[in-house]
Amino acid sequence: MASPAPMRVVSCKLKKKMKDKLLDALDKSANSNSFWLSFEIANEESFDVTKFLIHTLRTTVFHYELMKQDLERSWNNYSEIVMPKDWNTPIFVQKPGNTWNGNTDLKFELVSEDKVRELLIDLLTGQQKHYSRTSFCSPIKLEKANLIIDEFLREIKKKDENWKAYNFEPNFLNRVKDTLEVDATILSYFEESGRDLALGIKEGETFHMILTNGYP
User: Fold this and answer.
1) Could you tell me which of 21, 101, 105, 13 has the C-alpha nearest to residue 63?
2) Which conformational region is residue 120 in: left (phi greater than 0), alpha (psi within -120 to 50 degrees), or beta?
3) In this structure, what DSSP letter does residue 175 have?
4) Residue burial 140-164, b: 16+ Cβ < 10 Å; e: rest
5) pLDDT > 70: what percent of the chain?
């Protein structure tokens, strides 16, 4: 796998506690391996969200950040444990490959703050307005979900009152069914079980991507 191009991946300046609270809630409510990726925008004036996302995918920066968070969140889907000779502790080695499926025909809808809330609340509470729900999901009460989203939106607006949100069609990362049915070495993410989310947030000079992949 090629080394990532020199695009700086930023450690999200938003509160880590808020991020973890949202991701942990999405993990349980959508039965998902949820992620929050953040990337620096080099030139905000010429920012084009489609070109930017394709660049992060094509240069493997997107996958590299996904792999790092996969380790941080203890999923370990994109790395493997290796025990070097004469070492007392194991190390994690990145699995070869890329989660990007090569798709450059990215489709998205520019969505309002109210729509962002609606989408996330649906995933958190299992309302099934936009997403599916199974017995493996553990949705939370609407009141608690609103508190989590209130904090999320408050932090975003604190950094940038003119933030924008993009609801991408979740079809640019490999599907889990491809790993199971086509090639076991394919690194996959989206489950196609009705709870896949790829929500982009442009906040100042930072682009965030919130991902969910609800398992059946």
Assistant:
1) 101
2) alpha
3) B
4) beeeebeebbeebbebbeeeeeebb
5) 94
> What region does 41 belong to: left with phi over 0, alpha with psi -120 to 50, or beta?
beta
In the predicted structure, residue 134 carries a pLDDT above the cut 90: no
Amino acid letter, residue 142: L
**CA of 211: how far to CAs of 5, 144, 182, in Å?**
22, 21, 24
* Structure-token match 């196609």, residue found: 192
**Residue in this structure with the two tokens 């450059």, named with its chain if needed:** 104
Q: Which two tokens stand for residue 184?
A: 């076991």
Residues in the chain: 216
| 3-state secondary structure labels for all residues of 33-101 | CCEEEEEECCCCCCCCHHHHHHHHHHCCHHHHHHHHHHHHCCCCCCEEEECCCCCCCCEEEECCCCCEC
Whose CA is closest to 152, among 140, 165, 139?
165
pLDDT above 90 covers what percent of the chain?
A: 80
The answer to whether 130 touches 119, Cβ cutoff 8 Å, is yes
With residue 197 as reference, give the H or E element that holds it: strand 196-203
Phi-psi region of 57 (alpha: psi -120 to 50; beta: other; left: phi over 0): alpha
